[in-house]
User: Fold this.
Amino acid sequence: MSNKSVTIHELASLAGVSIASVSRALNGKPGISEALRARIISLSEEINYKPNVMARQLISGKTPVVALCMPPSPYEFSDRPYFVHLYQALTLYLHRKGLVPVLFAYENIEDVFSQACSAILLGAAEDDRPEIFDRQKFPCVTLETGVGASVVTDEANGMYKLTHYLFKKGRKNLLFLGENIDISTSQGRLRGYRKAVAELGLQENFDNVPSQISSSLSAYRQMMGHFQSSEPFPYDAVVCANDELAVGVIQAAEDAGYKVPEDISVTGFDDLPRFSNKITTIHQDIPKIAEAAVSLLSEQLDGLPPRVVEVMTRLVSRESA
Assistant:
């Protein structure tokens, strides 16, 4: 079976019938023989014909659906506050365009092609979703990949600036705390940290928190292991890959008798509401990311060439560092 998307014009040509006959066959409408209907349906399956869902929805009066596609495990929508805030912002901008967002798990990605007109791929994990959509010639926008139509942030530069900020505050022994740092979601931030410590002549120090139900709880447990060790804690700052980790680190430090930021500075990344109230962090403009993604998606639906949009970050200084 071919992986290339086929148009209704090509299907009609291959079947030797009109486009109207193809439409009647696939939509169960009268006006053609059952033998012809069966032949057209069989041919459509053989050549992997996918109807243009957006056109079909517009013709029927239904609102076009945009699939918001989650990356594969270990990412779960309800466990990631960043995705929740991004979803809310995307919903606002999609509704303004007359589009309806529907969340699709990675396991249900094949359903997107029959139920949606386009897609936004959430998460920066390196996986096969962009290739799957490209094979189907399906309009989509990615986040943080920088490939095709994509919205990226200058997260590496943000972490670079944050690391220099800590150095200017007198911090010399910095621990980078990441979450599954072997996958690409932490790589940009890790690059920024590594570039800064190399310039400053500092030693690189890394710790990895395995992704579980709660990033904050996982970070808390990880750090308590360090704090309860017989050896003194050797770092004067913990540079966290996101705000959720920073919350856990601060709680663990305080429970272990350390003062933040007097004894240990702690920083986050994302500037998420509820999590970052007192945390020095890097602000990501989530509404602007969502607006850019929807704008790029509109361009894809209009047949315009793909482009990359970069959204800048900024440092926010608060009580934790």
